[in-house]
Amino acid sequence: MADSVVLDPVDLEILRLLQNDARTTYRDLAAQVGVAPSTCLDRVSRLRRSGVILGHALRLDPARLGRGLQALLSVQVRPHRRELVGPFVERIRALPEARTVFHLTGPDDYLVHVAVRDMADLQRLVLDAFTARHEVARVETRLIFQQWECGPLLPPEGDAAP
């Protein structure tokens, strides 16, 4: 697990602003946090190098791209050994239908969020990419009716952490 990074109030404010609008210019960002643009650029660069900022992602609507059916696949791998974890995860991550992969504790080893065209496409994916694998002992499928994005990771300005 990664070590946490010490952040001062200016760093936290930069992160609050960027997480709500990652397209904010350094000049605007600097003005909002009360530092020089060069200082702001240095701080954002440091936050990237330290791994606090992981990148900037473009979010796409799967339904508008012809993948209107989403599901969660609970997967059990047997035997669940270290030498299988990396290769299994990389195979799943390489699937164009895979959106997110979680390695879990409990009865299921993985939870995989997928986006597919339709039920036939989901069935093909489960049979060809999962249950056909010798290390996959079980796959349980749950359809997603609807999903909502949650709030930002950092609390809004002025709110204290619990």
Shape: elongated
Helix and strand composition category:
alpha+beta
**Number of helix segments?**
5
Parts with pLDDT < 50 across at least 5 consecutive residues: none
Helix content: 25-40%
SSE order in H/E notation?
HHHEHEEHE
Numbering strands along the chain, what is their spatial order in the largest sheet? 2-3-1-4
Arithmetic mean of pLDDT: 91
Report the β-strand fraction as a percent range. 15-25%
Rg over alpha carbons: 20 Å
User: How many runs of DSSP E, i.e. beta strands?
Assistant: 4
Seen as an oligomer or otherwise, the chain set is single chain
N-to-C span:
22 Å
Please give the largest β-sheet: 4 strands, antiparallel
Question: How is this structure best described in words?
Answer:
- The protein is an alpha+beta fold and 162 residues long.
- 36% of the residues lie in helices and 19% in strands.
- The protein contains five helices and four strands.
- It has helices at residues 9-20, 26-33, 37-49, 82-93, 119-131, and strands at residues 69-77, 98-103, 110-116, 136-144.
- The protein has a four-stranded antiparallel beta sheet.
- The chain is elongated and about 55 Å long.
Question: What is the fold's blueprint, element by element?
Answer:
Blueprint: H1 9-20, H2 26-33, H3 37-49, E1 69-77, H4 82-93, E2 98-103, E3 110-116, H5 119-131, E4 136-144
Antiparallel strand pairs: 1-3, 1-4, 2-3
Helix pairs in contact: 2-3
Compose a concise summary of this entry.
With 162 residues, this protein is of the alpha+beta class.
Task: List the defining traits of the structure above.
162 residues, alpha+beta, four-stranded antiparallel sheet
